[in-house]
């Protein structure tokens, strides 16, 4: 939460592998968000979405927060923070309870969600989200809002998302060392999908693929509810590394070349077009055909999309995504990525940018900021709130007391 002239603002903090972004937004009555400030800082303390250097991560967060405060003209006190990485797991579960007074109350819903959450998970994992898919009352399924309905037996079908407890604690520790509190810790697949997917797509069946720097996050929706979440530890950084090795150029220059000239489909790159490639050491730069660069990049993207396809095959939802694939994230902006994805998946593919958001154009029209905007949208939408939110807040407060007590 942030304050500016008595106006309450909310802040999404996307702690990514390549950068940390803080986005300040104001919720309007129609459900839209106006972005009033953004701060960004290179990230040095994460690897594949997981904190590996607390001090570096803390410094990156502080710089991003200070920049966002300056632009928005506010003081940031708390944030909705994202958590990602290949440690994220998800399972579908059921819970059944008797309806106490023959009419479903909020207490009945909380009890049935607790029952659905009571499944064995590894000791090093923590439940991050309990997401209702549908409710069943006395055998009548397809119910999404059961409170007030009559019946004697309530069943909930839910999607549980778990993550590494140590990974969550390290993120919380970094945020606490910046003098901030956590409004909610949100899995980044949920945030990104909230920002870029439409209700119609979720109802028809859609797969969101968020290609970041360290990980590629996947979320599948059918019949309006989330069904599957996973992450693949191959993303934009691997493409940069391929360019650096194959073209014998420093990693920093390889990243610049990727952003300016790379193409994921070699047919789209003209063989006559050349690019300047810096060499290692004192050697002179070389000129190479842009199509040569595309021949390096295309196999990596093809591999990535094949891994996503295999993940969908294992999940059992590959034939249920009638609305196709929505690509988002920084590495999805590359020319040819959408066209190559259509060749691999044989379904419609589009590039996803944040929807229902106004304000700063560099945020509104950019898939790079899908997660940051999604953290604001998900955190500010009370329809998403379940008992797991209350649990995670209590867990963070306990952690903060321990942290401040020891430090």
TrEMBL record:
<dbReference type="GO" id="GO:0043093">
    <property type="term" value="P:FtsZ-dependent cytokinesis"/>
</dbReference>
<keyword id="KW-0132">Cell division</keyword>
<dbReference type="Pfam" id="PF02491">
    <property type="entry name" value="SHS2_FTSA"/>
</dbReference>
<dbReference type="Pfam" id="PF14450">
    <property type="entry name" value="FtsA"/>
</dbReference>
<keyword id="KW-0472">Membrane</keyword>
<dbReference type="InterPro" id="IPR020823">
    <property type="entry name" value="Cell_div_FtsA"/>
</dbReference>
<dbReference type="InterPro" id="IPR050696">
    <property type="entry name" value="FtsA/MreB"/>
</dbReference>
<dbReference type="InterPro" id="IPR043129">
    <property type="entry name" value="ATPase_NBD"/>
</dbReference>
<keyword id="KW-1003">Cell membrane</keyword>
<comment type="subunit">
    <text>Self-interacts. Interacts with FtsZ.</text>
</comment>
<keyword id="KW-0131">Cell cycle</keyword>
<protein>
    <recommendedName>
        <fullName>Cell division protein FtsA</fullName>
    </recommendedName>
</protein>
<dbReference type="GO" id="GO:0009898">
    <property type="term" value="C:cytoplasmic side of plasma membrane"/>
</dbReference>
<comment type="similarity">
    <text>Belongs to the FtsA/MreB family.</text>
</comment>
<comment type="function">
    <text>Cell division protein that is involved in the assembly of the Z ring. May serve as a membrane anchor for the Z ring.</text>
</comment>
<dbReference type="InterPro" id="IPR003494">
    <property type="entry name" value="SHS2_FtsA"/>
</dbReference>
<feature type="domain" description="SHS2">
    <location>
        <begin position="10"/>
        <end position="196"/>
    </location>
</feature>
<dbReference type="GO" id="GO:0032153">
    <property type="term" value="C:cell division site"/>
</dbReference>
């Amino acid at each position: 939460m942030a304050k500016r002239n008595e106006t309450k603002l909310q802040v999404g903090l996307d702690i990514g592998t390549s950068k940390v972004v803080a986005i300040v937004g104001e919720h309007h009555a129609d459900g839209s968000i106006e972005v009033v400030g953004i701060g960004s800082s290179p990230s040095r303390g994460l690897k594949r979405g997981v904190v590996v250097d607390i001090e570096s991560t803390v410094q990156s967060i502080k710089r991003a927060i200070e920049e966002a405060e300056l632009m928005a003209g506010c003081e940031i006190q708390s944030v909705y923070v994202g958590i990602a990485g290949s440690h994220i797991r998800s399972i579908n579960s059921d819970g059944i309870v008797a309806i106490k007074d023959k009419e479903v109350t909020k207490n009945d819903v909380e009890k049935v969600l607790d029952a659905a959450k009571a499944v064995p998970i590894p000791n090093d994992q923590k439940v991050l989200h309990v997401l209702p898919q549908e409710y069943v009352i006395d055998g009548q399924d397809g119910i999404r809002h059961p409170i007030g309905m009559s019946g004697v037996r309530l069943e909930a079908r839910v999607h549980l998302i778990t993550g590494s407890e140590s990974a969550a604690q390290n993120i919380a520790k970094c945020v606490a060392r910046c003098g901030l509190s956590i409004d909610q810790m949100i899995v980044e697949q949920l945030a990104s999908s909230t920002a870029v997917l439409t209700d119609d797509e979720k109802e028809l069946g859609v797969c969101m693929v968020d290609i970041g720097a360290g990980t590629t996050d996947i979320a599948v929706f059918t019949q309006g509810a989330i069904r599957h979440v996973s992450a693949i530890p191959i993303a934009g950084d691997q493409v940069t590394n391929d360019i650096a090795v194959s073209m014998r150029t420093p990693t920093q220059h390889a990243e610049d070349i990727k952003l300016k000239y790379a193409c994921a489909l070699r047919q789209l790159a003209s063989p006559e077009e050349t690019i300047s490639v810096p060499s290692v050491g004192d050697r002179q730069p070389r000129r190479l055909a842009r199509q040569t660069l595309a021949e390096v990049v295309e196999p990596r993207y093809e591999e990535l999309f094949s891994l996503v396809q295999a993940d969908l095959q294992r999940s059992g939802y590959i034939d249920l995504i009638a609305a196709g694939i929505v690509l988002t994230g920084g590495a999805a902006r590359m020319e040819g990525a959408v066209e190559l994805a259509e060749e691999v998946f044989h379904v419609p593919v589009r590039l996803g940018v944040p929807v229902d958001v106004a304000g700063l154009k560099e945020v509104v029209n950019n898939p790079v900021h899908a997660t940051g905007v999604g953290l604001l949208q998900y955190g500010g939408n009370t329809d998403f709130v379940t008992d797991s939110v209350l649990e995670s807040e209590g867990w963070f407060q306990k952690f903060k007391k321990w942290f401040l007590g020891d430090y």
